[in-house]
Write a structure and sequence with these properties.
With about 240 residues, this protein is mainly alpha-helical. Helices cover about 65% and strands about 0% of the residues.
Length: about 240
């Protein structure tokens, strides 16, 4: 495919391929049912409607309920959203128009205008719900009964920056698995917490994490001292004398 979305999971790719085949079969059946004496204008309207339905039905495999969306994202949510838009505009809609036999029979400018109309209609009808599902997939399952947890603090900082755990890693934070685990459990090793702060402080137009805030979290139950830190603390303890 000319626009191959790298953030689509293998499961989603398989589902999209299956949906395309299904819609191609539906188009073939509809084509066979067209009256041979149908007026060209009516034939055009019918084929545009088929192409639009083709696009909507395939896109449903992407814009599915939140849990399924989460499993389909093979990379960051932001990248998934952007690549889904590119896939629709540059791959799915042209494919639907080719299969509906619109490209060869009508002026290119007219086809371009019709494709743009289908794209606009999808953004009005299905895109808002898709974005809601993406936002739900991006939010971790945090226990609201536990107040002031590191997990809630970290999620608030990511939301403030418009980031996910993948973007935090790209900005110098720990690997996304470490941050995801912190969002789920609310706990993290001290070294990983330092890297999270380093990554968060790379954001522009957002206040940096203050030293007081860092000390507060490091002194809390949510940030665990590393083995190296515990050894350093033991070395700093007063040595026992033989009389003690």
């Amino acid at each position: 495919m000319p626009h191959d979305p790298t953030s689509f999971s293998p499961e989603l790719r398989a589902r999209l391929a299956g949906a395309v085949i299904r819609e191609e079969l539906n188009l073939a059946e509809k084509e066979a049912q067209l009256p041979s004496d149908m007026a060209p204008g009516d034939r055009l309207v019918a084929r545009v409607e088929w192409a639009a339905l083709f696009v909507m039905n395939v896109f449903r495999e992407i814009a599915c309920p939140p849990g399924d969306v989460g499993r389909q994202v093979g990379s960051s949510v932001t990248q998934f959203r952007d690549e889904a838009d590119e896939y629709v505009k540059h791959e799915l809609i042209p494919l639907a128009f080719r299969r509906a036999r619109l490209n060869r029979s009508y002026p290119m400018r007219a086809v371009d205008d019709l494709q743009q109309a289908v794209y606009n209609d999808l953004h009005r009808s299905m895109w808002p719900e898709f974005l809601k599902h993406l936002q739900a997939a991006e939010k971790p399952d945090i226990d609201d009964a536990i107040p002031d947890t590191l997990a809630k603090w970290l999620q608030a900082k990511l939301t403030e920056r418009g980031w996910d755990v993948h973007e935090l890693h790209r900005r110098g934070g720990p690997v996304h698995e470490t941050s995801s685990n912190a969002l789920r459990s609310g706990r993290i090793q001290g070294v990983a917490f330092d890297r999270i702060v380093t990554g968060l402080n790379k954001a522009k137009n957002v206040p940096e994490i203050s030293e007081d805030e860092i000390r507060q979290w490091k002194a809390s139950e949510w940030v665990r001292a590393t083995t190296q830190g515990r050894r350093r603390a033991r070395r700093n303890l007063p040595k026992k004398t033989s009389n003690q």
